[in-house]
Amino acid sequence: MTADPKIAKLQTDFQNLSEIASALNTASDHLTRSVAVLDEALKRLNIGLAVWVNFAIREVDVNEPMLYDIDQIGYYKVNGTWGLAIRHIWGDEGADWEKEEGPWLFNDASRELRVRAVDKIPEVITELTKVTLQTTKRVQEKTEKVVELAEAITQVTVATGKGKSLTLAERVAAGQKSLTGKLSDLAGPGKLGSVPARDTEEGSK
């Protein structure tokens, strides 16, 4: 019995598909591992800054230039984990509204999105470098202002500390020292030491 040509072709196509699918899965796994290594390297830098780069821009309506529909890859914190991420956003800049699908960590996104986005990873690193530099400069400027403020407050605190009110014990001690000094002065020549004893006794009556 002669085999049906359609069946034979289907069997051949399925065999080819099986081989190609195996190669696709191997390549996809390699991409996943490579991105995981890159994510780990970025995580060790402890940057903590988010950036996004467009990798697909869809035309929405030529008569509505404020409308947008974009796929982006970036560096973002998803469910408490920083890493390369993908998202789909769309909205209207004129009406000031936006909706979002995602974001997903890169390796959690669909295979199609990952394949389309992977070429933009170098741009993400470039943008992250730029934003990190800008943020570093702003932090340094803010730090200088805070240092100046701290120094000014410290000076006021020191000055206030020097002129602060004395406690009761400090006033008593200061009074005793002053009284002792005055008695010493009176005991000098021509003062208390030269007064006859009887005059002193008379004065005490």
Structural features, described:
With 205 residues, the protein is of the alpha+beta class. The chain has a domain at 10-122. 57% of the residues lie in helices and 20% in strands. It contains five helices and four strands. The chain has helices at residues 5-45, 111-117, 121-162, 168-186, 197-204; strands at 51-57, 67-78, 81-92, 97-105. It has a four-stranded antiparallel beta sheet. A hairpin with a 2-residue loop joins strand 2 and strand 3 (81-92). The longest helix has 42 residues, at 121-162. The radius of gyration is 42 Å and the shape is elongated. The chain starts with a helix and ends with a helix. Mean pLDDT is 81; it is low at 191-205.
Q: Quick recap of the structure?
A:
By secondary structure, the chain is of the alpha+beta class. The chain has 5 helices and 4 strands, in the order αββββαααα. The longest helix is centred in the last third of the chain and has 42 residues, at 121-162.
Topology of this protein?
Layout: H1 5-45, E1 51-57, E2 67-78, E3 81-92, E4 97-105, H2 111-117, H3 121-162, H4 168-186, H5 197-204
Antiparallel strand pairs: 1-2, 2-3, 3-4
**Helix coverage percent:** 55-70%
Task: Give the overall shape.
Answer: elongated
Low-pLDDT windows of residues: 191-205
Give the distance, in angstroms, between the N- and C-terminal Cα atoms. Answer: 154 Å
Task: Please provide the count of β strands.
Answer: 4
SS-based class: alpha+beta
Mean pLDDT reading = 81
The number of distinct helices, counting runs of at least 4 residues, comes to 5
Instruction: Report on the biggest sheet.
Output: 4 strands, antiparallel
Q: Which band does the percent of strand residues land in?
A: 15-25%
User: Could you give the order of strands across the largest sheet?
Assistant: 1-2-3-4
Order of helices and strands: HEEEEHHHH
Query: What is the radius of gyration computed over CA atoms, rounded to a whole number of angstroms?
Result: 42 Å
